[in-house]
Amino acid sequence: MAKPITVWLTRLTPLHFIPVVTILEELQVPYVIQSFKFDDVKKPPFIDINPNGRVPAIVDPNTDLTLWESGAIIQYLEEVYDTEKKLTYNSVKEKHLLTQYLHFQMSGQGPYFGQCGWFNGLHPEKVPSAIDRYTKEVHRLLGVLNTLLEGRSWLVGDKCTFADLAFLPWNCRLDMVLLTAPGEDPLAAYRNVQAWHKRMEDRPSWQKAMDIRAKLMDEQGLQANGMPKGVTNIKEYEDYMAKAAEPQQ
């Protein structure tokens, strides 16, 4: 029996650990979560684990390896623990296609979706040029995925892989990223992506990861959409953020 892997994360960043937890759940690898305050992300002991001061990071006692960067962690878990090839393939072609799509997620979807969400909802000042740029990039990337998934259920081969699951967390946040109107599905214009997303959302591993996320969000006083409890719309959220940014007396 493998010893549990420790997954380090801060309580303010539950989104970033979800792909790692989902993969661990898919592979039924034992793990424990080490949650700590965001204020301590640049302090020991975490800075000794990840000098870059970003989560997630893992410590695997079974191989004596400490690893950070979610993409690297996912590839490691696949190589070491996916002995039955549940989420990957052995063949050279498929293996490299999976790597390609994981890099596409890390260099494309993650950064651009994140910047769009920041400038739309979190930046203290409205910067129209930045909002326009990153909103267009989000739609461009969704268009690319929609084309890739034409006539396909999964990005590579005939099963869900780690490359598919890597895209799931940010697609779940599209309503906040794009400030979608209540009740509107931001994936409605991208039918292939929408169906792909739904297939992954129905997986038990994802539902377990979301249960863990909900618990962590509740502990830090946040709703499922990431807004503080008591905040019901974007205007209230902007007012909340503006007040939080005011200098303390």
How is the secondary structure organized here?
Elements (H helix, E strand, L loop, with lengths): L4 E6 L3 H14 L3 E6 L9 H4 L7 E4 L4 E4 L1 H12 L10 H31 L5 H21 L13 H11 L1 H5 L12 H11 L2 H16 L14 H12 L4
Summary tags:
4 strands; 4-stranded mixed sheet; 2 domains; Glutathione S-transferase Yfyf (Class Pi), Chain A, domain 2; globular; about 250 residues; alpha+beta; Glutaredoxin; about 10% strand
Largest sheet: 4 strands, mixed
CATH topology of the largest domain: Glutathione S-transferase Yfyf (Class Pi), Chain A, domain 2
Q: How are strands sequenced across the largest beta sheet?
A: 2-1-3-4
Mean pLDDT across residues: 88
Total strand segments: 4
Oligomer: single chain
Question: Given the C-alpha coordinates, what overall shape results?
Answer: globular
Q: List the domain count as a whole number.
A: 2
Number of H- or I-type helical stretches: 10
| Sheet/helix structural class | alpha+beta
Percent in strands: 5-15%
Contiguous low-pLDDT stretches (5 residues minimum) are none
Distance between the termini: 55 Å
Order of helices and strands: EHEHEEHHHHHHHH
- Report the CATH C-level class of the largest domain: Mainly Alpha
Helix content class: 55-70%
Radius of gyration from the CA trace? 19 Å
Question: What would your notes on this structure say?
Answer:
The protein is of the alpha+beta class and 249 residues long. It folds into two domains: 5-81, Glutaredoxin (3-Layer(aba) Sandwich); 92-202, Glutathione S-transferase Yfyf (Class Pi), Chain A, domain 2. The protein has helices at 14-27, 46-49, 70-81, 92-122, 128-148, 162-172, 174-178, 191-201, 204-219, 234-245; strands spanning 5-10, 31-36, 57-60, 65-68. Strands 2-1-3-4 form a four-stranded mixed beta sheet, with helices on one face. α1 packs antiparallel against α6 (162-172), α1 (14-27) runs antiparallel to α9 and α4 (92-122) packs antiparallel against α5. The model has no long low-confidence stretch (mean pLDDT 88).
